[in-house]
Amino acid sequence: MYRIDEALQEFVESGVxxxxxxxxxxxxxxxxxxxxxxxxxxxxxxxxxxxxERAPVPLGDIAATGQVAVTCSDPITYRSVQxxxxxxxxxxxxxxxxxxxxxxxxxxxxAVAIVGDPPHAARNxxxxxxxxRVDFDVERAFNQTPGPGxxxxx
Length: 154
Fold this sequence. Notes:
Layout (H helix, E strand, L loop, with lengths): L5 H7 L4 E7 L5 E11 L5 E7 L4 H10 L1 E7 L6 E11 L4 H20 L4 H5 L7 E13 L11
Antiparallel strand pairs: 1-2, 1-4, 2-3, 3-6, 4-5, 5-6
């Protein structure tokens, strides 16, 4: 199990872009945007959220393989990390979860505004409505920042 330190937790829980990668049992890849990454107190588990409307394919992949890869990328610096592990959907989310996602989306809007994306363009990246939470145990972590160190383990 990979243990997330405080600095990485601060990064993961900031206004990063969240790219969720899954693959079905035949190995066909699927990608969705995720929201609200949150590190659990154990520092070995992370939650993220998908829009329910866009969740059936990645949730089916996770149910079939258990595997998920989540890349968190800072829109300002392009610092990027990828967390890989085994996950499962959580049937119900709470008002606290919804508030967490709203906070993340506001931080994401602020970050992309710094690089010239207008707020309405950032808001067009998600669908308002029901969310699904996925929890996963982080087994490996990688540097994905563009450059010579990309792909190396953290």
